[in-house]
């Protein structure tokens, strides 16, 4: 059984936000593997005021905690920090659906990154370069921002005026 503890400090929540993400209709999971001790999974919960009133947010938090406890024996034995950001549909979702979402999210965000080979960054475009659209044709100049349209430009009605 995996050890599951809680995230408590803001810095831990912010660090987890830098890791992988997994989205569902009911929640978003953000996770980051840790190299240092303590071993085990640490989970934090974020339920914003936008989700609902305090009683609704607390109910969502309790449901997520119960889902974590229910899948604890099947949770990945990873050393990672995970933040669960709840959405309003988590309030009325079937509990089995919450458990399934949570299990999938933990598997994705705690998965180790694939090792990169040296020089494999050659396939990535340089910062600022376009990707997938190719070079822009020099024969069709782009108007300057805020410039008036040319007199023979179409207004989208199909009659050229």
From TrEMBL:
Parts of the chain that traverse the membrane: none
One Pfam family here: Ribonuclease_P
Broad class of enzyme this protein falls into: hydrolase
Family of the protein in this entry: Belongs to the RnpA family.
Protein function: RNaseP catalyzes the removal of the 5'-leader sequence from pre-tRNA to produce the mature 5'-terminus. It can also cleave other RNA substrates such as 4.5S RNA. The protein component plays an auxiliary but essential role in vivo by binding to the 5'-leader sequence and broadening the substrate specificity of the ribozyme.
Top-level taxon: Bacteria
Record-linked PANTHER family: RIBONUCLEASE P PROTEIN COMPONENT
Ranges of compositional bias, category Basic and acidic residues: 114-136
Region: Disordered, residue numbers: 109-161
NCBIfam families: rnpA
Reactions that this protein is recorded to catalyse: Endonucleolytic cleavage of RNA, removing 5'-extranucleotides from tRNA precursor
InterPro entries: Ribosomal_Su5_D2-typ_SF (IPR020568), Ribsml_uS5_D2-typ_fold_subgr (IPR014721), RNase_P (IPR000100), RNase_P_CS (IPR020539)
Gene: rnpA
EC number(s) on file: 3.1.26.5
Protein name according to UniProt: Ribonuclease P protein component
Subunit organization: Consists of a catalytic RNA component (M1 or rnpB) and a protein subunit.
Keywords annotated in UniProt: Endonuclease, Hydrolase, Nuclease, RNA-binding, tRNA processing
């Amino acid at each position: 059984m995996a050890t599951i503890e809680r995230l408590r400090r803001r810095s831990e929540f912010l660090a987890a936000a830098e890791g992988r993400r997994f989205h569902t209709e009911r929640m978003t999971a953000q996770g980051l593997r840790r190299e240092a001790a303590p071993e085990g999974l640490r989970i934090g919960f974020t339920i914003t005021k936008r989700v609902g009133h305090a009683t609704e947010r607390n109910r969502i938090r309790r449901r997520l905690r119960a889902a974590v406890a229910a899948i604890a024996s099947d949770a990945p034995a990873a050393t990672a920090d995970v933040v669960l950001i709840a959405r309003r549909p988590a309030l009325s979702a079937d509990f089995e659906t919450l458990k399934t979402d949570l299990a999938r999210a933990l598997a994705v965000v705690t998965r180790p990154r694939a090792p990169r080979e040296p020089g494999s960054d050659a396939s990535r475009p340089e910062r600022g370069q376009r990707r997938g659209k190719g070079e822009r044709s020099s024969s069709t100049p782009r108007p300057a921002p805020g410039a008036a349209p040319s007199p023979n430009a179409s207004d989208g009605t199909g009659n050229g005026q």
